[in-house]
Amino acid sequence: MVEHTVKAFDTEISQLRGLIAEMGGLAEVSIRDAIEALVRHDDQLAQTVVAADDKLDALEAEVDRLAVRIIALRAPMADDLRDVIAALKISGVIERIGDYAKNIAKRVGQIDRQKNFEPLTLIPTMADIAQGMVRDVLNAYGARDAELAIEVIHRDEKLDNFYDSIFRNLVAHMIETPATISSAAQLLFVTRNLERIGDHATNVAEMVYFAATGLYVSNRELPVSFDESI
After folding, report:
1. Are 206 and 216 in contact (CB under 8 A)?
2. Residue 130 is part of a domain; what is its CATH number?
3. pLDDT tens-place string over residues 112-167
């Protein structure tokens, strides 16, 4: 990061990045713990995930305040402005990722513990992909790594394929064993939440790519030029 004449500006930008990193770390832990609670039928851990969401909300508000302060007092331009705007948007997306982890945790108590669903054995692998996307996109943000951001974007297709496979498996299971419909439906919601986490990680990757390069990603495949005069 280029040093600025006003050292306080560098400090504030570093604080902003630190807050985003903290939010990302909490979101990762929430995803991991929500899935662990699901697999272990651990209601106490699930409640911990739900309670942790308040911290993410508070951090998002802190990012908002700091970003507005930087824009108002420092009037950042070019790379600096993109950095601040990206942080402002990314914090909102991470907060939503935390909401999806919380939603998964809330399903834990609604799944029949006496039934062993084959799709439940696949969900942790899907969650690992989603969590990895969140981790890597935040690493890309911290390092301004446009290539890693593009890699995360491409990884979303693998997560979507997992979702489609588990969805079909669960629907077939409900047809064959009607008694499991209620629990299977809850697992459908879980997989949908994981798929949405991947979508949000992809959105963050697009913001990171723009913040690092000044280019937009078109159709999540190839970057296109961005005319800053518009």
Report:
1. yes
2. 1.20.58.220
3. 765 566 667 889 999 999 999 999 999 999 888 999 999 999 999 999 999 999 99
